[in-house]
Every structure is written in structure tokens, then in C-alpha cells.
């Protein structure tokens, strides 16, 4: 549990080389221009990054092909170490785009959508959050009504990643499809292909960070979908999407680990090379102590992240419980994301005035980090889930 396999470390070296050769030299320019680097997606597909948890029959390397969830976390960590936007593109592309289709889709849906998503020829989005709703996922205002030919979808979604790129092929959304016997909303998941009449992708958000990442609001007005657009069972949309988020939290933990690692490495190198009063600033306890604390936080995040990933792989093999994975995912996500936010603050402080300048990567990491404590369930939600796992809350 405390040491990754040689295969995982060899794979890490491949992803790191890709990140340092094909992302790092250009990411500052892409960030300034808020430009989504679409050309990277097929390159990531060629490396097999989108297919690590997908069975071979759909083009992936999972289930006997050598891929696993731990390998996905390794890839996200290494990409996130260079740029968080590129890391979230992979994380969301797999965890929120591919996984719902892989887990709940019919064989026809899997054959239709997965091969292109795995190859990096396409991306998929995951439409859960709504304007004004936030974490209240069980009562969406978006509605889908049956008609003679299928469904008519009306409503809106907010903050949806990978939903408006030139290669986005489909977005899966939750919608109210009726009422349960107790009067609560019946929520189902529906797949909406890009370009469907009545489906509008709103202009890109002007965001604090993740400038490369593609993020949009979505609007549905009389959007007609065929009957086979239903993903999984009718009325099971909330359960399906919350299960998807459990896995996504581990992936976000890996992304946060990449951010924290980058800040520790950058700040340590700077503290060794930057001199003041005749010696490196790292020789001063005012600099070395915060970096020592950061090293502890990074190591804690690493162990919790890969414990959660290992448990996820063990669950897939039938050797662990859903409850264990759920608790480990919440703990890892909470620790890693809060460590990442702290890491950016420490690194920026070590860089001093230079840390406030956009020419230094720590400024970009500072902007990018805050969303880690919000997306895939806020830190408050993670504490609620952890407390529930301890039997303390309903």
C-alpha cells in the first residue's frame, strides 16, 4: 500500500515526460489566452490515459489489460503537477464523462460512445449542478417529460466541465422525471448528444482559475431526446451520480496532490537559489519551517490518495466494501485539497513579490487551487460524509 508497483512508476515516467515536453513549455501562453488545448486530448488518448479503467472491448486497458484506478490517479497527479487545467480535463473526462456510461450504460450506449471517448477523439460532460442549487442534487429543476417518441428536456445546468469543446460528443444530465410514492422528486439520468436541437451551450465562464479548462452553463429548451437516451434505470439518477462522485473525489485528490507537490518543489528550489543577506533564504527558519510543514502535508495527501485508489481497485476485485471506499475518498479529498490550497499560499509567500507575478507558475497554481475545495463536493460536504461514516450524523 505504501509503495506503487514498478509498472505504476514506469507509467508515471511516461506521463511526466509528456507533461514536461508537451504541456509545460506552452501552458503559460494557453493560460493567458484562456485557450483550451484541444490537440492534447487525442495525444492523451494515444497514451491510453482515457482508457485506464475501461475494458478492452471498448478500446481501454482495464480488466486484464493492465490498467487500473491507481494508474489513473498517477496520470492525473503528474498532469496536475504541471498544470491543473490539463489534469482536470483528464479527471473529468474519465470520472465524469466515461464512468457514468461505462457503469450504467446499455451495451448499445457503450458501443456508441466509449470508443471515441477512450481514444481521445471526443469528450463527454456530466451535468449535475444547477444554477442556485449547489450541493442539493436530489431536487433538480431540470425536467424531462415523456412524449410519444421519447423525452422532452427543459432546464439548465451550471459549471459543466468539457461540455463545450469542439470535440464534446455528449453530456449526461440529471432531470426530474416524476415523483416517488413519498412525494419526493424522481430523478433520472439522460444522455444529450452535442448539437441536439434545444440544447444550448452558454458562453465560457470568466473564471478565477483553470483558465484552460472548458467550463460552460447549459440550457435545455424543448430538447427532444429518443427513448433510449435514458442512462440506467429510471428514477436512479441521484444514486448513479453520487456513486460517480465517490470515484471522482479520489481523482480530485490526485489532482490536488499534483498541485501541492508542484508548489513544494518550486518553493524549495527557489528557497535554495534565492539569496538575501548573504545566504539562501531557505537557511532561515521563517522559510524552512513552513516548507517542512508543507512536506508533511504533501506526504499525508499522497498516502491518503493512493490508499483510496488502492481501496477502489480492491473494491473492483471484490475484496473491499463500498462503505470503505466512500469514507477513504472523502478523507483523501478533504486532506489533499486543503493541503493544496495551503501549499499555494506557502509557495507564493516564499517567492515574495515574484510569487505575485504571472510569469511564475506559483501564481497560476494559487489561482487554480481554490476550486479543489469546492468541486466534486465542498470541504463541508466531505466533513459531513466523514461524520456520517463515523455514525455521527444522519
UniProtKB/TrEMBL annotation:
InterPro entries per UniProt: Acyl-CoA_DH_CS (IPR006089), Acyl-CoA_Oxase/DH_mid-dom (IPR006091), Acyl-CoA_Oxase/DH_mid-dom_sf (IPR046373), AcylCo_DH-like_C (IPR036250), AcylCo_DH/oxidase_C (IPR009075), AcylCoA_DH/ox_N (IPR013786), AcylCoA_DH/ox_N_sf (IPR037069), AcylCoA_DH/oxidase_NM_dom_sf (IPR009100)
Domain Acyl-CoA dehydrogenase/oxidase C-terminal: 235-390
Cofactor(s) in the UniProt record: FAD
Family membership: Belongs to the acyl-CoA dehydrogenase family.
Start and end residues of each Acyl-CoA dehydrogenase/oxidase N-terminal domain: 5-120
Full protein name: Alkylation response protein AidB-like acyl-CoA dehydrogenase
Domain of life assignment: Bacteria
GO MF annotations in UniProt: acyl-CoA dehydrogenase activity; flavin adenine dinucleotide binding
Record carries keyword Transit peptide: no
Domain Acyl-CoA oxidase/dehydrogenase middle: 126-223
This protein's UniProt keywords: FAD, Flavoprotein, Oxidoreductase
Amino acid at each position: 500500500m505504501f509503495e506503487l508497483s514498478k509498472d505504476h512508476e514506469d507509467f508515471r515516467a511516461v506521463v511526466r515526460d509528456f507533461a514536461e515536453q508537451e504541456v509545460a513549455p506552452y501552458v503559460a501562453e494557453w493560460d493567458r489566452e484562456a485557450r483550451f488545448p484541444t490537440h492534447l486530448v487525442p495525444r492523451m488518448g494515444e497514451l491510453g490515459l482515457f482508457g485506464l479503467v475501461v475494458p478492452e472491448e471498448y478500446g481501454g486497458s482495464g480488466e486484464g489489460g493492465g490498467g487500473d484506478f491507481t494508474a489513473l490517479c498517477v496520470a492525473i497527479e503528474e498532469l496536475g503537477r504541471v498544470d491543473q487545467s490539463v489534469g482536470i480535463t483528464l479527471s473529468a473526462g474519465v470520472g465524469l464523462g466515461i464512468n457514468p456510461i461505462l457503469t450504467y450504460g446499455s451495451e448499445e450506449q457503450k458501443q456508441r460512445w466509449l470508443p471515441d471517448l477512450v481514444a481521445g477523439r471526443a469528450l463527454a460532460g456530466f451535468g449535475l449542478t444547477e444554477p442556485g442549487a449547489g450541493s442539493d442534487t436530489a431536487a433538480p429543476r431540470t425536467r424531462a417529460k415523456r412524449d410519444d417518441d421519447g423525452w422532452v428536456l427543459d432546464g439548465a445546468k451550471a459549471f459543466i466541465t468539457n461540455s463545450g469543446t469542439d470535440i464534446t460528443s455528449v453530456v449526461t444530465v440529471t432531470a426530474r422525471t416524476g415523483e416517488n410514492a413519498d412525494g419526493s422528486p424522481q430523478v433520472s439520468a439522460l444522455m444529450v448528444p452535442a448539437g441536439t436541437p434545444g440544447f444550448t451551450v452558454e458562453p465560457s465562464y470568466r473564471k478565477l482559475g483553470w483558465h484552460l479548462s472548458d467550463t460552460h452553463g447549459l440550457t435545455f429548451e424543448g430538447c427532444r431526446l429518443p427513448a433510449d437516451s435514458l442512462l440506467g434505470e429510471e428514477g436512479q439518477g441521484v444514486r448513479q451520480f453520487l456513486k460517480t462522485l465517490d470515484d471522482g473525489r479520489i481523482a480530485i485528490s490526485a489532482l490536488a496532490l499534483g498541485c501541492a507537490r508542484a508548489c513544494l518543489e518550486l518553493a524549495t528550489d527557489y528557497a535554495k537559489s534565492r539569496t538575501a543577506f548573504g545566504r539562501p533564504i531557505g537557511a532561515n527558519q521563517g522559510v524552512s519551517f513552513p516548507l517542512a510543514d508543507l512536506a508533511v502535508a504533501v506526504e499525508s495527501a499522497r498516502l491518503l490518495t493512493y490508499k483510496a485508489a488502492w481501496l477502489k481497485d480492491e473494491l473492483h476485485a471484490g475484496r473491499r466494501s463500498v462503505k470503505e471506499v466512500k469514507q477513504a475518498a472523502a478523507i483523501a479529498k478533504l486532506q489533499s485539497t486543503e493541503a493544496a490550497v495551503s501549499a499555494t499560499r506557502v509557495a507564493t509567500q516564499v517567492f515574495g513579490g515574484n510569487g505575485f507575478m504571472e510569469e511564475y507558475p506559483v501564481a497560476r497554481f494559487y489561482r487554480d487551487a481554490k476550486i479543489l475545495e469546492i468541486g466534486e463536493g465542498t470541504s463541508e460536504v466531505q466533513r459531513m460524509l466523514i461524520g456520517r461514516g463515523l455514525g455521527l450524523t444522519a
